[in-house]
Amino acid sequence: MTAHTPHTPPFRDPQLPFAKRIDDLLSRLTLDEKIGYLHQFGPPVERLGVAAFRTGQEALHGVAWMGPATVFPQAVGLGATWNTDLVRRVGEAVSRETRAMRARDDRVGLNVWSPTVNLLRHPLWGRGEEGYSEDPKLTSAIATAYTRGLRGDHPTYWRTAPVLKHWLAHNNETGRDITSSSVRPRVLHEYDLRAFRETVEAGATAGVMPAYNLVNGRPNHLSPYLGEHLRTWTDEDLLVCSDAGAPSNLVDSEHYFDTHEEATAASLLAGVDSFTDHGTDSSKITARVRGALDRGLLTEPDIDTAVRRQLSVRFRLGEFDPEYDPHALTLDFDTPAHRALAQEAAEQAVVLLKNSAGLLPLAPDTRLAVVGLLGDECKLDWYSGTLIHRSTPLEGLYERFGPERVEFAEGVDRIRLKTSAGTFLHVPEADADDEVRGAEGALDPALLAGRTDLPPLTTDPNGTELALVDWGEGVLTLRAPDGRYLSVAEDGGVRASADQPGGWIVQETFRLEPHENGHLLRHIGTGRHVSVAADGVRVADADPEIFEVVLVERGEDAVTRAAAQADAVLVVAGNDPHINGRETEDRTTLALPAHQERLLRAARAANPNTVLALVSAYPYAVDPTSLPAMLWTSHGGQAAGTALARVLAGDVSPGGRLPQTWYADDADLPDLLDYDVIGGRQTYLYFEGTPLFPFGHGLSYAAFAYAGLSTRTTDDALHVSFTVTNTGDVTADEVAQLYTRAVDPTVPRPRRELLAHSRVRLAPGERRELTFEVPLSAFAFWDVSRDGWRREPGPYEVLAGASSEDVRLRTTVIVDGEPAAPRPVLQQGLPAADFDEQSGIAIVDRTRTAGDAVTAAQGGAGELVYRNCDFSDGVTEVSLTVVGEGTVEVSLDGGPARTVLTSEASGSGPYDYTTLTAAIAAEGIRDVRLELRGPLRLAHVGFSG
């Protein structure tokens, strides 16, 4: 061991284990210094030579918010590749660019807040673009690959330290900081926790970020699962970073505590280590911590625990060993390899949904019409970096086929806006330059202001022709001839100033509202109407202008002209990632916006050889019946256009697969806040309808034959093998998928459940044997009767194929396990949340710190069923642990009520439980059914006698 001089404290000694070095540094910090570390922006400790440290750097599909960087496909697009090796390489490139950017800008952090492992349970969730899949197995596989790339492969030092988002059961933006996800134990363990668990267990995760929402009535920032589950999955210290503003929400919006001192203390004790609140101003959080200490709500050892976890990450990042850190000199930024990787990822993310007439790939001499609102767009989302390189579908097709063979019609409605005075809105000439939003980088891009250096709009006798797009639900953008969008800055002026719609509150969207004989133009971001003043056009609270919309050209007319002259038409449709579906805003429908439906109908009417390419962050319900070909890709980053063009031309055979179910109609969807995937029959796991396109679906320019399925069972695994042969005439990728189904389960089990997959590239005629080792634990489910995992013995189908519905091979295996046993209700009673079935029930918090109870949703009526309860030789009494006013009706086997227990309002709090008892006679194995009425909470049911 190295001998320490007075000038070399142990925390600076690279020969010592990290744990000893952390102990030493922690012992040298004063209480105030440690408290300072609890905020996202930890200050330097100059007397020890310790630098400032910031948790959090967005890096979902490239380094975000900090200026130019390589932009890869959106996370949902990376999920669509089903390619873990590719995603690992993307993570590696992102982490290298993070290091390189930090070398020249110390605002760039190494504690990266990505990936997002929330499951894509509901296709209307506004942040669906951030997740990988609706399936926990695929999500964890892709997330594990990305975190491994972010971490790097050095055994000691991490290139970046990834934090998983957002713990837990978070799939709604509507009321996201006040709504509670009711998650039954089976869904919790089999679905929501599973994606996090398998990623954490893989060993490349530095921590998690709790979500804004509540789960079972308790805010995620107080989640007992952080200690009960998360921190049991690894021996590493995990850093838990709050989401922005969430600590204050505990008091301000959720009203879970009366004071911020109580809330901050409770979060820290639950396992939150770093508080992201009030931007760079740490004074409020540190004052709350000191207040909690003064009130005895926290102790210094509680603070030490949190600080230790943060220091653990800093040591792993090599901060204290710059001479040993192998990543310290990483300068890989916008390299040819990164550009090639961005294109490869974009190509692999393209999913061919339909190709019934063999229209694709396009012949080399095709005269092509490219039409649609996204035909010449390369859209970014909230978590994108700034583009260094840019490729739109139109640019990619110009490059591939030649501009002389490609005609473009965007399909915007071209209008002029006439004022009540008879003049028209006019965009003044100005040197708008090429300024791009966010090019300089910002720690908080929500604070970026709009431009005021350009003149506001005016009016004149002729006016300016504007390009109008209706993105759905009446949300419009208006664009000037120079390509700049009308936008509103802080001074209220309306200017043609934005390169794209964007920002935390989008300032480039409007609504036309019928009014008298014209329309008012409402600016959505401010809620104000547009008025015409002496100093220009602006938004104001009074004197709104009444406009007449003068239509110069309908978008479908331009589309019809272009389509009629072409051999084939490519309609490029989809969404703008900042409008009608994004963080803070859920979608309301699966339908394609009416403006884009008009363009699609016009193209099909003019030319039957119409291909629809959906470029979107989400699924759409588009009838493919009259379309010969249809593709989908997420917003594919900087190489999106080139990638799509190469797929359309046949340079690359499409190999992407859908990472979530595409439903045919809004009627197929559950309520957005229904998190019971089992009871609600959600996702491909349980959905019993006919999807538009199933999970795992994707076609190819080749064909593949599956053969030779064989299985072999050992003590702890099922070994599966089969062959896949490319029977086509082009080299192509196939994604072979392995599923299982319990043949005769005693509880509802998935219709299909993904066990494993493999993306393979095969030359024409090439055959490959694929082998999979599936742990037998994959066949287990969470048995609520024993509060643990159980593998049910019996037959299981093993299914191999090209999607969850395109099954090519199947066999049945017999799996050993533990047989079902009746619930021992005499010994354990019935924890109320451990039901088998429910209707109209919400799970709520039994106490502020732990435990679950149940209540009738919205204080109405609800039903609970507990199967196979063993009353042995008989019971004579039932007892309920309840609080609040209401009734509980107890029946057996669906028969009449045996007893009704009534709880009176007591004026006590929601956690002041009492016990009600009543006589009941029951024996043998029976199903217990409870009817709850009123707002009472039920925590436990006991039986005796």
What labels would you give this structure?
18 helices, globular, 945 residues, alpha+beta
How would you describe the overall organization of this protein?
The protein has 945 residues and is of the alpha+beta class. The strands form 15 sheets. A 6-stranded mixed beta sheet has the order 11-28-27-26-12-13, sandwiched between helices. Strands 38, 40, 41, 43, 46 and 48 form a 6-stranded antiparallel beta sheet that branches. It has a 5-stranded antiparallel beta sheet with strand order 39-42-47-44-45, with no helix packed on it. Strand 19 and strand 20 form a beta hairpin. Helix 8 packs across helix 9 (260-270), helix 9 (260-270) packs across helix 10 (283-294) and helix 13 (393-401) crosses helix 16. The radius of gyration is 30 Å and the shape is globular. 54% of the residues are buried. The model has no long low-confidence stretch (mean pLDDT 96).
Measure the end-to-end span: 67 Å
- Work out the helix count: 18
Proportion in β-strands: 25-35%
Q: Globular, elongated, flat, extended or rod-shaped: what is the shape?
A: globular
**Radius of gyration, in angstroms, nearest whole number:** 30 Å
The biggest beta sheet reads: 6 strands, mixed
- List the strand order in the largest sheet: 11-28-27-26-12-13
Give the % helix: 10-25%
Task: Quote the average pLDDT.
Answer: 96
What's the quick description here?
This protein has 945 residues and is of the alpha+beta class. The strands form 15 sheets. A six-stranded mixed β-sheet has the order 11-28-27-26-12-13, with helices on both faces. Strands 38, 40, 41, 43, 46 and 48 form a six-stranded antiparallel β-sheet that branches.
